[in-house]
């Protein structure tokens, strides 16, 4: 059986980029106020119990394992990549939950069935080393079990510190830049998620404000809508993006149907495109952590989460 995986293993040339991604995440976590940090650790503790119990169920129940494995095998490579992307996005969202006001329900939530398949796929990617001898065909259950056991017994996973809880999420989220890099290159060199439209929920939540006629910022009080170049009359209801820039409602809606960035400052709104959303949240992590940013499909644009 010829298995095809999205290649995100950090065992190859990517080890330096994934360790700098871990550094970015560490400085992000260290920048959190102590109260947010401990709140984050305790909210992640219950999620980690869920992840571990799903993985344990997969490994302890042969029927469950083979169901998840045959489901994975039925998926073409792009859908396997999407599954991993959703797992990575989930970990980024959870890590960022303390520093952004994320909506209570979002379109990227994983159903339990998908979560199991994604966890299994990630465990397969992590435990498989192409240069090491593996039996043929690979006995995935024992390969994944051996890897799960060794990582459960690693010093970082032991003990009752917040870092023992955060570690697995940092490990997952640190794969994001490398993952987007690989997914982008398999996409013909284009950046994944480029041109993604703004999430419907984010657009619906945009406030309507009365245009006063003398706006601050924006190059000294522009009365012009940057989309249509026509003046906005005082007293009109206009659309305000979270960055503060204002546009005619019709212009903003037409623009955000195609893109998730502000026409003036490229502030990024949430998007339903999983890959673009990973890029957006990763840039937010880089910005909050004060890092210089590793490559993640685009310039370090201003981005507010949520
Ligand atoms: Zn306009
Ligand atoms: Zn703006």
Short description:
This protein has helices spanning 15-30, 34-60, 62-74, 77-96, 112-127, 140-152, 162-173, 176-185, 200-204, 218-221, 249-256, 274-289; strands at 208-210, 237-240, 246-247. With 306 residues, the chain is mostly helical.
List the main descriptive attributes of the protein structure presented here.
three-stranded antiparallel sheet, Herpes Virus-1, binds zinc ion, 306 residues, 2 domains, mainly alpha, 12 helices
Provide an overview of this structure.
It is a single chain. The protein has 306 residues and is mostly helical. The chain has two domains: 15-191 and 281-289, no CATH class; 200-256, Herpes Virus-1, CATH 3.30.40. Helices cover 52% and strands 3% of the residues. The chain is built from twelve helices and three strands; from the N terminus they run H-H-H-H-H-H-H-H-H-E-H-E-E-H-H. It has a three-stranded antiparallel β-sheet with strand order 1-2-3. Strand 2 and strand 3 form a beta hairpin. The longest helix has 27 residues, at 34-60. The structure holds zinc ion (ZN) (2 copies). One zinc ion (ZN) is lined by residues 225, 227-228, 230, 247-248, 251. One zinc ion is lined by residues 225, 227-228, 230, 247-248, 251. Keywords: Metal-binding, Zinc, Zinc-finger. One of its GO terms (cellular component) is cytoplasm. GO terms for molecular function: ubiquitin protein ligase activity; zinc ion binding.
């Amino acid at each position: 059986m010829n298995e095809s995986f999205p290649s995100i293993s950090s065992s190859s040339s990517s080890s330096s980029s994934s360790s700098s991604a871990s550094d970015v995440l560490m400085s992000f976590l260290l920048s959190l106020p102590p109260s947010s940090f401990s709140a984050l650790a305790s909210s992640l503790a219950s999620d980690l119990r869920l992840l571990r119990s799903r993985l344990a169920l997969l490994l302890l129940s042969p029927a469950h394992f083979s169901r998840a494995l045959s489901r994975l095998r039925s998926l073409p490579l792009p859908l396997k990549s999407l599954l991993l992307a959703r797992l990575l996005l989930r970990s980024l969202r959870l890590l960022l939950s303390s520093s952004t006001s994320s909506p209570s329900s979002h379109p990227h939530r994983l159903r339990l069935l998908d979560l199991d398949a994604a966890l299994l796929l990630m465990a397969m990617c992590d435990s498989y080393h192409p240069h090491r001898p593996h039996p043929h065909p690979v006995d995935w259950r024992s390969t994944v079990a051996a890897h799960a056991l060794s990582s459960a017994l690693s010093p970082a996973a032991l003990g009752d510190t917040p870092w023992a809880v955060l570690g697995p999420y940092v490990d997952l989220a640190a794969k994001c830049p490398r993952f987007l890099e690989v997914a982008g290159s398999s996409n013909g060199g284009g950046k994944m998620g480029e041109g993604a439209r703004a999430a419907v929920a984010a657009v619906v939540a945009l406030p309507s404000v009365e245009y006063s006629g003398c706006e601050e910022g924006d190059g000294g009080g522009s009365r012009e809508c940057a989309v249509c170049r026509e003046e906005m009359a005082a007293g009109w209801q206009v659309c305000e993006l979270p960055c503060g820039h204002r546009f005619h409602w019709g212009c903003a809606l037409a623009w955000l149907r195609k893109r998730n960035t502000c026409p003036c400052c490229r502030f990024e709104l949430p998007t339903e495109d999983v890959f673009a959303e990973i890029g957006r949240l990763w840039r937010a992590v880089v910005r909050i952590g004060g890092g210089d940013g590793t490559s993640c499909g685009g310039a370090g644009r201003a981005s507010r989460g949520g």
